[in-house]
Structures are given as C-alpha cells and as structure tokens.
Design brief:
The protein is α/β, with parallel strands linked by helices. It has 15 helices and 13 strands.
C-alpha cells in the first residue's frame, strides 16, 4: 500500500515522500481513511508506530487552507517535548500548504505564544495546563475548534491532567470530530473515550503494553553501586563486544540521579547531558538538539523523556534504573527501533529491582532475558558511591512494585523462578 491509496492529496504525499517515507505504517493505513471520512477514532498504538502522521496528515487535508484567526484543530499532548515534536511534524507534512500551526506549553514565557496566537492559527498544539490558563483569560480562542486530538491520553491521565482536560472540553464547541490515541486502555481511558467519542472507529495495531517488536532486549545483573562502572564499560566496549556505543538514551528514576550520572559519565570521558523536569525548556531543547546532532554520546533522562522524543536511528536505550510503573518500561524502550529501524534496550538490574523486572515481564507477557554480565573494572573517577534515589523511596511501603528483601532473610539472587514470586 502507498500513501496515494489512502485518499491523501498529492501535495501531502509529496511532503511525506520528501521526508523519506513511501509506505504507510499499519496505524496510518487504518486510521487515515476514517479520519478523512470525519469519523471519531479510538486508536491504540505504541510510541514509534507513526501515529503522529496518522492524525496530522488527514487533518491537514480536512482543513484545506487557512481561514480566520482562531484555530480549527486542537491537539493536546502531555509534555512539552511531545508538543514540540507534533508541531514539527505538522510543519514537515504541511510544507506544501499555507496552514498555520502554533504551540503553547508551560515552562517558558507566555507572551511569544500569545503573540503567535494573535497572528492567526489553524492548528494549535498544546499541553493542558498552559492552554487552560490562556483560554480562561480569553487569550486563546477555542470557539472555532472542529477537530480535537488527545495524543498520549494515558500519559496525560497519569500526569494528573484529567481535571484540566474536562475543563477544556466544557468550552469546546459541540459537534466536533474527536480522535483519542493511547498506548494503553485503562478504565480511566475507557471512561474518557465513552464521554467524548461518538460511534468511534476502533483501531489497535499492537497489543496493549507489548514491547516494540524490533527492539532486542537484554538485562544484566549488577550491584547497585557497580551500575555506573558497568555502564561506562558498555559505552566503551558494547554489550556484546561489538565495539563502542555511538549513542544511547539512558533512563534514571530521579532528577538528582540523572544529574549525578551525567556528571559521572562526563568524568569518564563520555559526552553527556541530563534532561528532566527541573531543567529549563531552553536547556532541554539544547540538550536534545545536541544529542540529535551527534554532539553528545549519552542523554540521561527521567520519565519526562520516555514519551515525546522522536530520535531517528537511536541504537540504544539503557534502563539504568528500572521504572516503578511497568508500562513506563514499554514507552522507554520505544525510543529506539523507530521508523522501521532495529534497536537495542539494556537494563541494569540490581537485586532490589528483581521484583520490578518481574512486574514488567508480566505486563508485557514477555520475558526480558538475562545475559552474562561483562567483566568490567571499577574506575577511580566514578568513586562516589551511588545512594538510594530518595529517602522517600526507601521509606515507601512494601508492595508489588517496591518489595525489598528483609535483613533477616535476604532474597536469593539466583535464577528467577517462573510462575510467581
């Protein structure tokens, strides 16, 4: 199947081809025709499946051309990074149109965003908080919205945006087309879909919470204090003796941990930067741009980057810390193996994280195989011990995702048993 077969106009097909794509992905092939037909859509798709083009391309066609100053399309996204990525996709795919796209999100000065809205807008990409603030002050006109997209809806609910979303929905015109994209179908997502979607077409191209098929996953057993030493070894030698890594996106659980690990990698001679919620938007944009340009070998990130980062040909993702939420693992490793490429995901698993890995495997219905841990040396430049992420984390009540071995009976760290803990 070609993009021509989906009913898209030649100028959109040309823009897609100029970006290097000739065949639609499964989510694009299934979603574009019903969106063009004006139907509501409930789509389940993992990150990296091409879902942004699945709604951007048909909406560009439905708008036809610029009209008035108020936006007719509203696209809500959970993070600044994802919002900026969607805006870039609109500009790429709409290169042969005259449609105007704008973006508003928090963490930066609002006045340039207000000025851009006043200059006229056809498609508005926004994070819920900043949009609601501007709309309530009548600085963002939502009276002309005819098409609403909720992208990464599950992530928005996880981040506590449900109340902002409800308030935004109350000020939007009735009778609009609604598109909801989510990687998972939780009860909250189903309730939200039931509220806003009218007789929707359902599209699901991958099972919920399954890992990207092209990602080769492996795990290494390693003591917590030795993780940084093993990571430096992997950057210098590879995970299987294949040679030094050219680039890797490394995930930590906390902002402080990201900063500390980035500094340690720098001391080991590995060009690195950290990206997380406490960084200014300009610092986050600069770090991501340097990483994409090949100026950095390592980008150390917290969960803020597990969705919304589109890095083509990223070869490696590393889970320096396993996430407490199993679904976040799927989104993390989805940063690699994008646009038909192959990718690798490595997890450094200490004894305390063994229960987290089992939770991840149950969620994915797939094992993450352990590989023999490479022999590595402890570098003097990494001498600072790695302490638990936060005091609060160490005091967290025991549960399925954070159960710790007792002092009296330490957990065996041998081969894992199948069929239960």
């Amino acid at each position: 199947m070609k993009f021509n077969d989906l009913g898209l106009k030649p100028e959109l097909v040309l823009a897609v081809a100029a970006h290097g794509y000739t065949q639609p992905t499964p989510i694009q092939a299934e979603a574009i025709p019903p969106v063009l037909a004006g139907r509501d859509l409930l789509a389940g798709a993992q990150t990296g499946t091409g879902k942004t083009a699945a709604f951007v391309l048909p909406l560009l066609q439905l708008l036809a051309g610029p009209a008035g100053r108020a936006p007719r399309v509203l696209i809500l996204a959970p993070t600044r990074e994802l919002a900026a990525q969607i805006l870039e996709s609109i500009r790429v795919y709409g290169a042969n149109t005259q449609l105007r796209a704008r973006v508003v999100f928090g963490g930066v000065g609002e006045q340039p965003q207000i000025d851009s809205l006043r200059s006229g807008c056809d498609l508005l990409v926004a994070t819920p908080g900043r949009l609601l603030d501007l709309a309530e002050r009548r600085l963002a006109d939502l009276s002309g919205i005819r098409h609403l997209v909720l992208d990464e809806a599950d992530r928005m609910l996880d981040m506590g945006f449900i109340h902002d979303i409800r308030r935004i929905l109350r000020v939007l015109p009735a009778g609009r087309q609604n598109l909801l994209f989510s990687a998972t179908y939780t009860p909250d997502i189903r309730a939200l879909a039931a509220r806003i979607l009218v007789n929707p077409v359902r599209v699901e191209v991958t099972p919920s919470n399954s890992a990207v098929e092209r990602v080769v996953q492996r795990a290494f057993r390693v003591a917590r204090d030795d993780k940084r030493h093993l990571l430096v070894h992997l950057f210098e030698n590879g995970a299987n003796g294949e040679g030094p890594w050219t680039q890797a996106l490394v995930f930590t659980r906390t902002k402080h941990g990201a900063n500390r690990l980035s500094e340690q990698l720098e001391r080991a001679g590995i060009r690195s930067a950290a990206i997380h919620g406490n960084k200014s938007q300009s610092a986050r944009i600069r770090a991501l741009a340097d990483f994409k340009a090949g100026k950095l070998t390592a980008l150390v990130a917290t969960e803020v980057a597990s969705r919304g980062l589109d890095i083509r040909e990223l070869p490696q993702v590393v889970n320096f810390d396993l996430p407490h939420v199993p679904e976040d693992y799927v989104h993390r490793i989805g940063r690699t193996a994008r646009a038909g490429q192959d990718g690798h995901a490595v997890s450094l698993v200490c004894e305390e994280e063994a229960p987290l890995l089992r939770d991840i495997e149950r969620t994915m219905r797939q094992a993450v195989p352990f590989a023999p841990t490479p022999a590595f040396t402890r570098s003097a430049v990494l001498a600072t011990p790695v302490r638990p992420a936060t005091a609060a984390a160490s005091r967290a009540p025991a549960g399925p995702s954070n159960r710790r071995p007792s002092r009296a009976a330490p957990r065996s760290y041998g081969p894992r048993r199948r069929g239960g803990r």
